């Protein structure tokens, strides 16, 4: 079983700083907080709702695309968080050309839910 990685808003902001233009403003702090914390949601105390690393990682991309916590670069930041989370979980990803953009389009159109995103991440695993 992969380790359960828990991250916070600071981690998301570090990734934002590393991969996006300087000072991309935060549009919604509540959405940012939800983006950072969603992967740790527990159905009941001590039982994670998102059991698999791909499901936990999918929360970053899915939330960034739908809630848009940043004024711009939500796809880039959401994907960077997702990819880094999977890397930290020892399950690196390598999507095929244009697969990420196709997935982002379907999420934004609300044609793909979190489960679909997680399944797609699983199909992109390299390890």
Descriptive overview:
About 55% of the residues lie in helices and about 5% in strands. It is globular and about 35 Å long. The longest helix is centred in the middle third of the chain and has 15 residues. It has a single domain, classed as Four Helix Bundle (Hemerythrin (Met), subunit A) (Up-down Bundle). The two termini are about 15 Å apart. Strands 1-2 form a two-stranded antiparallel ribbon. It is mainly α and about 130 residues long. A hairpin with a 2-residue loop joins strand 1 and strand 2.
What is the number of strand segments? 2
Number of helices: 6
Kindly report the spatial arrangement of strands forming the biggest sheet.
1-2
Determine the mean pLDDT.
Answer: 90
> What is the percent of helical residues?
55-70%
For the biggest sheet, the summary is: 2 strands, antiparallel
- Cα-atom radius of gyration: 14 Å
Task: State the distance separating the first and last CA atoms.
Answer: 13 Å
Determine the CATH superfamily: Fic/DOC protein, Fido domain
SSE map:
Blueprint: H1 9-19, H2 29-37, E1 42-44, E2 47-48, H3 53-67, H4 74-88, H5 99-108, H6 114-123
Antiparallel strand pairs: 1-2
In short:
By secondary structure, the protein is mainly alpha-helical. The chain is built from six helices and two strands.
């Amino acid at each position: 079983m992969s380790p359960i990685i828990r991250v916070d808003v600071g981690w998301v902001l570090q990734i934002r700083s590393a991969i996006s233009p300087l000072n991309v403003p935060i549009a919604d702090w509540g959405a940012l907080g939800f983006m950072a914390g969603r992967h740790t949601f527990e159905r009941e105390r001590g039982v994670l709702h998102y059991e698999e690393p791909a499901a936990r990682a999918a929360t970053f991309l899915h939330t960034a695309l739908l809630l848009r916590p940043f004024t711009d670069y939500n796809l880039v930041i959401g994907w960077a968080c997702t990819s880094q989370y999977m890397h930290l979980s020892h399950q690196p990803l390598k999507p095929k050309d244009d697969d990420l953009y196709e997935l982002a389009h379907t999420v934004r159109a609300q044609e793909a839910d979190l489960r679909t995103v997680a399944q797609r991440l699983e199909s992109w695993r390299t390890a």
